[in-house]
Amino acid sequence: MMYLRLEMLILVVLAIACLALCLCIALFWRLIKISRRLDSALGGTSPSSLESQLSQYFTRVQETDSRLTSLADQCEKLAITSSLASQKISIVRFNPFGDTGGDQSFCLAVLDAYNSGYVLTSIHGRQGTRVYVKPVDYGKSKYNLSEEEKTAISQAAKRTPKFKD
């Protein structure tokens, strides 16, 4: 009877050992699969590959940051420069004398973003054509302006660029 119990105990221990061995094999197989997935995600089997990738990423972030700073500076310079460029233009044609044919005379207003620039007036008559230029600062001139010149400046000042979203 004692031998029977001992044999049963040995069988139970062997069954538990087989079960533990199967469990170890299954866990080892899962460990290999997880290890492969981790290696492919981190870019290699060496521990330095993660460090190298992080280092490269950090270097790229620094380069991108310096490029963005440079681009922001260039954009600001461009905005300042373009605000002084001629961007608002208007022309008004008129007939200053009733005895000449057509609207051969004109006022041309050329302004920047601050409504500064000039108004060019050409008056055409039978005897010839006269051309006048008057400076404009912030929509006003220190010289007397004709109604046509005021109209040209006003029309030009109202022009604003339309940007697509």
Largest sheet: 4 strands, antiparallel
Strand content: 15-25%
State the end-to-end distance.
Answer: 93 Å
Q: How are strands sequenced across the largest beta sheet?
A: 1-2-3-4
Mean pLDDT: 87
Order of helices and strands: HHEEEEH
Shape: rod-shaped
Number of helices: 3
Judged by helices, strands and strand pairing, the structural class is alpha+beta
Q: Measured on Cα atoms, how large is the radius of gyration?
A: 43 Å
Can you give the helix content as a percent range?
A: 40-55%
Overall strand count: 4
Poorly predicted parts: none
Textual characterization of the structure:
With 165 residues, the protein is α+β, with helices and mostly antiparallel strands. Among the domains are: 29 residues; 71 residues, no CATH class. Helices cover 54% and strands 18% of the residues. The chain has 3 helices and 4 strands, in the order ααββββα. The protein has a 4-stranded antiparallel β-sheet, covered by helices on one side. It is rod-shaped and about 145 Å long.
Which labels suit this protein?
165 residues, alpha+beta, 4-stranded antiparallel beta sheet
Write a compact overview of the structure shown.
The protein is of the alpha+beta class and 165 residues long. It has helices at 2-42, 48-83, 147-158; strands at 88-94, 105-111, 117-124, 129-136. Strand 3 (117-124) and strand 4 (129-136) form a beta hairpin.
Write the layout of secondary structure elements.
Layout: H1 2-42, H2 48-83, E1 88-94, E2 105-111, E3 117-124, E4 129-136, H3 147-158
